[in-house]
Amino acid sequence: MALRIPTSLTRHTESASPIASTISATLPRPSLxxxxxxxxxxxxxxxxxxxxxxxxxRISSQNGIAGLRAFGSTGIRARQELKVRSxxxxxxxxxxxxxxxxxxxxxxxMSSLTPYCLNVRVVIKPERKDEFLTVIKADxxxxxxxxxxxxxxxxMQDNTNSNQFFFHEEYVNKDAFLAHTEAPxxxxxxxxxxxxxxxxxxxxxxxxxxxEVKSITKNDRTLxxxxxxxxxxxxxxxxxxxxxxxxxxxxxxxxxxxxxxxTLEPNAKQYTYGENVAAPxxxxxxxxxxxxxxxxxxxxxxHFLKWEAFAGTKPFGKDPVVYFGTIV
Length: 328
Description:
Elements: E1 13-14, H1 76-94, E2 100-102, E3 108-112, E4 116-123, H2 129-146, E5 150-158, E6 164-171, H3 174-180, H4 184-193, E7 203-209, E8 216-217, E9 232-238, H5 245-260, E10 268-276, E11 283-289, H6 292-299, H7 302-311, E12 321-327
Antiparallel strand pairs: 1-12, 2-3, 3-8, 4-6, 4-7, 5-6, 5-12, 7-10, 9-11, 9-12, 10-11
Helix pairs in contact: 1-3, 2-4, 5-7
């Protein structure tokens, strides 16, 4: 099956497309793929890196939330997470954490070979959009300014649905992510999500980044310009069959290595992927390019064409989910 680059890349698509998100125009476009949202839908959730707000609210472990259940009124779980946060921050400040490196000036910096990542999708009610952007950007600034274990926090707007947004977050490990959920700036986001601002359930996918060739620091994940504003992004879910996993990983590895090679792809800024921590054989990708033209160059590269050939063998158990966005 031949996969084609669409005339327009600014739309949400499901197809048997490869990770870099070429789209097979022969497949229909579903309005909202149900398998990305889990079995139960609820609007009373928050993201990114969120806790569930009510013991009655549940979201499928397919979306990586199995380990984050309701805290309840007793505060027991809250105290447990505060303990995790204290332990994480103590190890970071003392330099005993395996994620602490030293810069040339002797300053301690945090890094990770396998960053703990979140890909988050929200659809905001139109009348709440301005408030949403104010609150989530404040959370973003607080995260990147005050959290020693935070590596990246980007906000993207869908290229065709102005009410749909995506977040990509990276932390040095899961403890750093849990510390994030107890940070003061996160409380404003949590309070906002309790006011029913979303028109759909939040989708949250948690995964550890794979095949990074060096430990990632916050500096590595800092995009030039105004936090990368205006850059073209690709947000993907893939569901390979068990029988295809080995070839899938091998082909993706070649594609990632080629994309990360600045000589081959100078306009490619980031290619991050990993397997869902709670749902085996569910993989999530986040890519950044200078612009749409840079993505099209990627889609014509030799390493991508090898991936496209593999994707044409129908190796997926579910149709891929692909969104194109722009960093705001």
